[in-house]
Design brief:
By secondary structure, the chain is of the alpha/beta class. The protein has helices at residues 7-17, 20-35, 47-51, 88-101, 112-115, 141-155, 166-169, 190-193, 203-213, and strands at residues 38-39, 59-63, 119-123, 128-129, 160-164, 181-185. The strands form two sheets. A four-stranded parallel β-sheet has the order 3-2-5-6. A two-stranded antiparallel ribbon has the order 1-4.
């Protein structure tokens, strides 16, 4: 089946698009978008890949589900378009960024600039029904995005994986830790952050230190 995805990634993942689970997944997604309000809009579903090709990926930030409120999701984990209120988890990400690197975060919630510097902002599930968190889980997206993580692990070296929260941490088994970096912490959601599991992880400075040590350009967070 023909999937509109960035050419670099399309070549890497072409075998996945022919598998029965993916055919079934696309059928489900098409039906959902036809019969319900779903997010993100169809042209934004693969934005994480569009803005951050395989060859340019240096960092992976793994989310679980797209935002399910109107106008929020646009295909990048934790990110929202300009003009949309900054969600609580992203607000906590910005607070940690300010504490860690003393940089003033964006006044908006659009993280596209991170993606264009080699940060793959990947959700495990790429679509959701409006106002129904987790409604498109266990339909095949996780099989696909697990394969994305495996391809990165197998085909690259020195990628820095940021695994925030219990769900993301489980993905560490897909990553070859002998040739990649894995940084873990609690999730930036208020529930986790306010219990002391998020703030102070200093992941942003740690990422840039690792990138510099291996001769890469640090991220302008």
């Amino acid at each position: 089946m023909e999937v509109e995805i960035e050419a670099n990634w399309k070549n890497i993942l072409k075998d996945e698009f022919e598998k029965p689970y993916f055919e079934s997944l696309i059928g489900f997604v098409k039906s959902e978008y036809k019969n319900h309000d779903c997010y993100p809009k169809g042209s934004d579903i693969f934005n994480a890949f569009e803005f951050c090709p395989f060859d340019e990926t240096k960092v992976v930030i793994l989310g679980q589900d797209p935002y399910h409120g109107p106008g929020q999701a646009h295909g990048l984990s934790f990110s929202v378009p300009k003009g949309i209120s900054i969600p609580p988890s992203l607000s906590n990400i910005y607070k940690e960024l300010k504490d860690d690197l003393d940089v003033q975060p964006y006044s908006h919630g659009n993280l596209e600039a991170w993606a264009r510097q080699g940060v793959l902002l990947l959700n495990a599930t790429l679509t959701v029904r409006a106002h129904e968190a987790g409604s498109h889980q266990n339909k095949g997206w996780e099989i696909f995005t697990d394969e994305v993580i495996k391809k990165l692990s197998q085909g690259k070296e020195n990628v820095i994986f940021l695994l925030w929260g219990g769900f993301a941490k489980k993905k560490s088994k897909l990553i070859d830790s002998s040739k990649h970096h894995i940084l873990t912490s609690g999730h930036p959601s208020p529930l986790s952050a306010n219990r002391g599991y998020w703030f102070g992880n200093k992941h942003f400075s740690k990422v840039n230190k690792l990138l510099q040590e291996q001769g890469d350009i640090p991220i302008q967070w």
